[in-house]
Amino acid sequence: MRELSQGRINIAIAGTGLIGRRHIEGVLSEPRAALAAIIEPSGSARDWALAEGLPRFASLSEILAESRPDVVIDAIKQSARTAQTIALERSRP
């Protein structure tokens, strides 16, 4: 499992559109929070995450197989939310 920050709230953000990037900026500027990962399947998001030095996963299922962030902010398009919700439900203990 991927190591998460100790003593800070580990936040993953699903979606890197306009709203997702605003959430990312907010998390990065908050000293009590750590950006655990971004969740986005697109190649442009992969390139952007790499350039920014951010951990990136293609799906919620992928990150949950590796780590357990404290919070997942859902900033994806509404039409794609069903698959993310199912992945979250399946990951619950």
TrEMBL record:
Membrane-spanning segments: none
A Pfam family per the record: GFO_IDH_MocA
Gfo/Idh/MocA-like oxidoreductase N-terminal domain boundaries: 9-86
Xref: Gene3D superfamilies: NAD(P)-binding Rossmann-like Domain (3.40.50.720)
GO molecular function: nucleotide binding
Protein's UniProt name: Gfo/Idh/MocA-like oxidoreductase N-terminal domain-containing protein
Organism: Rhizobium mesoamericanum STM3625
